[in-house]
Structures are given as structure tokens and as C-alpha cells.
Design a protein that fits this description.
There is one protein chain. The protein is of the alpha/beta class. It has a single domain (about 20-325), classed as TIM Barrel, CATH 3.20.20. Helices cover about 35% and strands about 15% of the residues. The chain has an eight-stranded parallel sheet with strand order 1-10-9-8-7-6-3-2. The chain has a two-stranded parallel ribbon with strand order 4-5.
């Protein structure tokens, strides 16, 4: 049985010292031009100091017009390299496997943020998004590949392709959103082509010791769980990716699809053939006991979001106490300051209902 504190080798890149991965968490702390801020640097390095085996950045956009939220980290221009290089060096110094998550928001890019209508695999009225031309599809694919090369140049150990949460790669995968009639739409083979070409391109352009992961969502955002199960197994057994990161929202719930009732989402994915690829998931893994239950159910590693916001040293806390439970919500703002969150990140966390305690009034 997997132990949370066993090292985890990948097919490419350094061995992870344990089975804890920092989730790619939106924090809005970067500068408006996408360059790294001191606050975002501090937030991420503190998690590496807290013994996460893999420390991943927030979603970093690969094209300026693919930005998804204010204060987002950028990786679409060489002007981002100095900050990224500084970050990679500090993460690596702390013995964590350093990763940039590569992202393009597609139709979910706010027009007021990017200065134009967002674009999508096909026209989308809900988001007032226009359809991408074939040349734009290929340019976005190439932007993902170029961003991976940039991450490697900066000194990161690898990248993760963000194929979840209704963003661009996910939009291509969706039979609801993707209504294209060319080679990037129609059959699932065509709808996954964008992701497949990104994977192949990164593998060809980056070194043999550079790790590559993919994040997928099996539900919501127009996903068909049968298609995502087939895709997940295919990717894991292809030899092209090192780890699959499933965003499940709740690892232990049953699928919404009636065809898959009777088992948890985690059970469904853990039963797949994975070759040498490692399988992990995020979704309500907020306590030591939940993390242990997840690896007992078959995960190779756990992806920690909320617990990592509350405790920069979440892995160390679980190592000291297998039944570790994070501080109760709502937390005082001072606690988050001590945990390395900057003012912008704390303001963002105040938008999460019941997360931050309201300041006492005189």
C-alpha cells in the first residue's frame, strides 16, 4: 500500500520526496503584466519550505488573450523569465519538484481584461465568445508548447497542462462546447486532438528530464465521464505523461452520471490501467485521514488546496499526526498573513463564504 511519505519517482525529472502535491491555486497576486510579484513568490516558496513534494504555480496563461483572472501569472513572453527563474531556483533549493501549470481561459477570458471578445473552439453565446480560426487553434497549441519551453529555460522541473474546469483545452474536449466541423471537432478523437498535439509538442520540444502532467475534470463543463475515463486511461498508458491530476471536487462522491452509480469517482479512476504514470486527485482532501483514505483507495499522490492555504506545512502536520485536521473556519486574517498570503490573496479568500473571520468592530 502507498505511504503518503514514500518518495514518488516519475518517468521524467526529479523524484518527489513525498506524495503531497500543491494544487494550482488562483491567488491574483501577480502584476498586471503577468510578471511575478514578491507576494506570489513568498506564497509559493513557503509551501516548498513546508515540504510539499511537488509545488505547482497557479494557472499561468500562455497567451495574453487567454488570461482568465486579474493578477494572473504569465508565461507567454520572455519578459516573464526573470521572475519565473527566480521562483524556480527558490523552489528547487527547497527540494520540491517545481511545476508551472499552463493555462488558457478560452471563452472564459473576461473581455474587459483582455480588451477583446474571448475566443473559443466554436462560437458561444453564453460567453459572447467568437469561434477560433484554424490558424488561431494552431497558434494557441504552439503557445502552450512555447510556454513549456520557457518554463524549462527558467529552471522548472516540469509543466502541467490545464485541461479542466471549462478552460480552453477542456472546451475542445467538450461535445457541448466544441461544435467545430474540422479536424478539431466532431468525434472525440478530433476533440482531443488539441490536447494530444500539446502533449506531443511539449515532449518533442523539452528535455528528457522534464516532467509533464495533465489536469482533467470528469464532470461539469460539458464533460462526458465515459469519454474522460477512456481519455485518462489512454493518456496514462501512452508513456507521454508522468502524472494525471484529476479535479474531482469531492473524491469520495458517486458520479452524477447514472451509468456510474455505486462507486466513488476516485474508485472509477483508480481502477484504470495507468502503466508507469502516477494518478492523483483533488477534492475535499482536507485532513490527514482523508489523504490516507485516498491513497488506500488507489491514488499515487494527493493534491492539496484548502489545506495548503491554511497550513503551508500541511505535509509536515500530517506526518506528525496522521489524524491532523486544519484550523477551523473562519480563520482570523492574521493566521493567513502568518501563512504567507499577501493582501490581494487574503481579499480574494474573503470572497469564499465563511473562510475568513470578519474583523471585530468597535
Amino acid at each position: 500500500m502507498t505511504n503518503l511519505f514514500d518518495p514518488m519517482p516519475l518517468a521524467h525529472g526529479p523524484v518527489l520526496k513525498n506524495r503531497f502535491m500543491l494544487a494550482p491555486l488562483t491567488n491574483m497576486q501577480s502584476h498586471a503584466d503577468g510578471t511575478l510579484s514578491d507576494d506570489e513568490f513568498r506564497w509559493l516558496v513557503k509551501r516548498a519550505e513546508g515540504s510539499f513534494g511537488l509545488t505547482m504555480t497557479c494557472a499561468a496563461h500562455v497567451q495574453a488573450k487567454g488570461q482568465g483572472f486579474p493578477g494572473q501569472l504569465g508565461i507567454f513572453d520572455d519578459a516573464h523569465l526573470p521572475g519565473l527563474t527566480r521562483l524556480a531556483a527558490a523552489l528547487n533549493k527547497n527540494g520540491t519538484h517545481s511545476v508551472v501549470q499552463l493555462h488558457h481561459a478560452g471563452m472564459r477570458s473576461p473581455a474587459e481584461l483582455i480588451g477583446e471578445a474571448p475566443h473559443c473552439p466554436s462560437e458561444n453565446a453564453e460567453f459572447s465568445a467568437r469561434a477560433m480560426s484554424l490558424d488561431e487553434v494552431k497558434a494557441s497549441r504552439d503557445a502552450f508548447i512555447a510556454a513549456a519551453v520557457r518554463a524549462e529555460k527558467a529552471g522548472f522541473h516540469g509543466v502541467e497542462l490545464h485541461g479542466a474546469h471549462g478552460y480552453l483545452i477542456c472546451q475542445f474536449l467538450s461535445g457541448e462546447v466544441n461544435q467545430r466541423t474540422d479536424e478539431y471537432g466532431g468525434s472525440f478523437e478530433n476533440r482531443r486532438r488539441f490536447l494530444d498535439e500539446c502533449i506531443a509538442g511539449v515532449r518533442a520540444a523539452c528535455g528528457k528530464d522534464f516532467s509533464l502532467g495533465v489536469r482533467l475534470s470528469p464532470e461539469r463543463f460539458g464533460m462526458d465521464i465515459a469519454e474522460i475515463l477512456a481519455l485518462a486511461e489512454d493518456l496514462m498508458t501512452s508513456g507521454d505523461i508522468d502524472y494525471l491530476d484529476m479535479s474531482l471536487w469531492d473524491c469520495f462522491k458517486e458520479p452524477e452520471d447514472a451509468r456510474y452509480k455505486g462507486e466513488t469517482l476516485l474508485d472509477r479512476f483508480a481502477a484504470l490501467d495507468r502503466g508507469s504514470c502516477k494518478l492523483g486527485a483533488a477534492g475535499k482532501l482536507t485532513t490527514g485521514a482523508a489523504c490516507q483514505r485516498a491513497v488506500e483507495a488507489g491514488l499515487d499522490y494527493v493534491v492539496i488546496g484548502r489545506g495548503a492555504i491554511l497550513h503551508h506545512d500541511f505535509p509536515e502536520q500530517v506526518k506528525a499526526n496522521a489524524d491532523f485536521t486544519p484550523i477551523a473556519l473562519p480563520v482570523p486574517e492574521e493566521h493567513l498573513v502568518a501563512e504567507g498570503l499577501g493582501p490581494v490573496f487574503i481579499t480574494y479568500m474573503k470572497s469564499w463564504k465563511g473562510f475568513v473571520a470578519e474583523a471585530a468592530t468597535a
